[in-house]
TrEMBL record:
Protein name: RING-type domain-containing protein
Gene Ontology terms for molecular function: ubiquitin-protein transferase activity; zinc ion binding
Keywords from the named record: Metal-binding, Repeat, Transferase, Ubl conjugation pathway, Zinc, Zinc-finger
PROSITE patterns: TRIAD (PS51873), ZF_RING_2 (PS50089)
Lineage start: Eukaryota, Sar, Stramenopiles, Ochrophyta, Bacillariophyta
Alphabetical list of Gene3D superfamilies matching this protein: Zinc/RING finger domain, C3HC4 (zinc finger)
One Pfam family linked to the record: zf-C3HC4
Family annotation (InterPro entries): E3_UB_ligase_RBR, TRIAD_supradom, Znf_C3HC4_RING-type, Znf_RING, Znf_RING/FYVE/PHD
Organism: Skeletonema marinoi
Occurrences of domain RING-type (ranges): 30-123, 34-82
One BP annotation, GO: protein ubiquitination
């Protein structure tokens, strides 16, 4: 690894050094870091939710992000990954994993957006 992915701290195959090395749990597994809250202790893999683009964030930050997006109304269906510059759109899969109680509202906005966009189309 050349250190560009951020996943191994650029130390794959070698010893860990400095602040680039991921924190380790007692079991020896690497802790993951959320780029939103930057929690110093990191998170276990099962506390993170990833997107197809590869960006992962902690459950708490995801929930807040989705709840905030839903406040925008139907425009929430155009919301993209929280990672700066990433254009991957949020789907019902991410909403279901991070905020299952908010999924019905998200799906309502998806349907509404679809109807508003394609409602006048003749098939």
């Amino acid at each position: 690894c050349q250190g560009g992915c951020g996943g191994c701290g650029g130390n794959e195959g070698g010893g860990e050094s400095g602040s680039k090395a991921a924190k380790r749990t007692r079991a020896g597994t690497k802790k993951k870091h959320c780029e939103i809250c930057l929690d110093e202790d990191g998170f276990d893999a099962d506390e993170m939710i990833g997107m197809p683009c590869g960006h992962e964030f902690c459950e708490t930050c995801w929930y807040g992000f989705i709840a905030n997006a839903l406040e925008k109304g139907p425009l929430c269906v155009r919301e993209s990954c929280p990672q700066a510059g990433c254009k991957e759109l949020i789907t019902e899969e991410e909403v279901e994993r991070a905020a299952p109680d908010l999924l019905p509202k998200f799906e309502t906005y998806q349907l509404r957006s679809f109807v508003e966009t394609y409602g006048m189309t003749r098939w």
